[in-house]
Amino acid sequence: MTAPLLETHDLVKDYVIGGEVLHAVNGVSLSIKRGEFVAIMGASGSGKSTFMNMIGCLDVPTSGTLLLDGIDTKTLDSDALAEIRNRKIGFVFQQFNLLARTSALDNVAVPLIYAGLGYTERRERAQAKLEAMGLGNRLQNTPAKLSGGQQQRVAIARALVTDPLMLLAD
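RE: above sequence
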């Protein structure tokens, strides 16, 4: 039996605001296997984005355990967490977070720079993802020259270009 891709045990994230403790995530435990599709649903302000940021290694839990691909993320320094984010996790953010003065092709290629790929391979892989998203004719467009739906597809292509183990979409 293979280990789950993601496991959390009693995951907690608290914020102190004005001297009061806000429990953004309170004791979440779950297990997600490779290939599973999971939706976290709840009202606005219920902690979904905070939870996603923790399982995506963008934020650290106040307490509890987070195992990603069998690795306890508590044991990792910031460089190791950055490497995990780049190699194992793809993110599609609510606001897309595209670089405004950068072409769709170069926006998608950014994670491949951090992965250490050369210029030619970065461009080929980024172009292939954009073509798969139906944006082969928009490679050189900046986000301002793309519709909202096209910007979203660029963000999805960027999230998938490293072939991550896990895709997180907020």
